[in-house]
Amino acid sequence: MASIRQSVDQGAEPGEQSFDNQGIWKRTQSDFVLGGGQDYFDQEDESNRRQFRLSKGIDPWDRRSVTLLKDTAQVDAAIGDGDSGILLPTASHIFVASGSALSKFTAADAETAITSLSGTRITDLTVWGDYVYIAAEGQTFRRVDVSASVAVPFGGTTPTKAQVIHGRMICTDDNTIYELDNGGSLVGGGLIFTHPQATFEFTRIVSAPNGIYVVGDDNNNSVVYLLTVVDATGELAAPYPVME
After folding, report:
1. Average pLDDT, whole number, for the chain?
2. 15 versus 121: which is more confidently predicted?
3. What is d(CA 176, CA 191) in angstroms, rounded to the nearest whole number?
4. In the beta sheet, which residues pair with residue 88?
5. Is residue 201 a contact partner of residue 175, using CB atoms and an 8 Å limit?
6. Cα–Cα distance, 138 to 197 (Å, whole number)
7. Inter-residue contact 136 to 121 (CB < 8 Å)
């Protein structure tokens, strides 16, 4: 003999289950501001009633409503040669690099080309204060004022990757890591680290609460190094591997 659940709901939040004692107990949502990525909705400790699993073309950030995202529009048919793409937003512009070309946008119909570049493929962009810094293959580091359109050399190094992290300009060039001051000179007068394998190449610089991660590989094995600060001097210590 099957028993029927009593029409009493002891849950902290009323729902359909409070009124219907048959069938599946459904759950509802009216706020989706935490976005997607939640596979299971009904786990007591892990689930969040403001997050969903997956959506496409939906704006989840408008509270208490479900609306579509704005339509996309093509701003430029072909910036540069198209063999690479880097997007860098600043407070007033969006900088877009493609191949050896760089443009900045203030609106969909306001494009300004950045001139006096090196002519080789742009490999990284970063912003520091009022300047956007441009790393390109085998060429001297350059920067351009966000309100201007002419790039000028910055120091004498030739980084392939450059990122401003924790107020420091961290650069890599093949198998070396170094830091630049606001005048383009090497902090401490030299390199922070040179990988003993000449074919090793650092390919990414990432911010973290406990330091700065620098990722590289030798086309066979990838290694993540961690840069930390020497408390006594405030300079960056030589990195050490934390993951392969």
Report:
1. 84
2. 121
3. 7
4. 95
5. yes
6. 19
7. yes
Cα–Cα distance for residue pair 108/20, rounded to 1 Å:
53
- Three-state DSSP string of 98-150: ECCEEEEEEECCEEEECECCCCCCEEEEEEECCEEEEEECCCCCEEEECCCCE
- Which residues partner with 133 through β-bridges? 126, 143
Backbone dihedral angles phi then psi of residue 93, each to the nearest 5 degrees: -145, 170
What's the Cα-to-Cα distance from 209 to each of 51, 170, 244, rounded to whole Å?
26, 16, 20
Which among 47, 46, 51 is positioned nearest to 34, based on CA atoms?
Answer: 51
Task: Enumerate residues 6+ apart whose C-beta is below 8 A from 4.
Answer: 21
CA distances from 202 to 46, 79, 127, 188 (A): 37, 27, 20, 20
3-state secondary structure of 11: coil
Torsion of CA 199, 205, 206, 212, to 10 degrees: 90
63-81 residue pLDDT tens? 777 788 887 776 665 565 6
Dihedral (C-alpha) 111, 140, 123, 236: value to the nearest 10 degrees? Answer: -120
Give, for 31, the enclosing helix (H) or strand (E): none
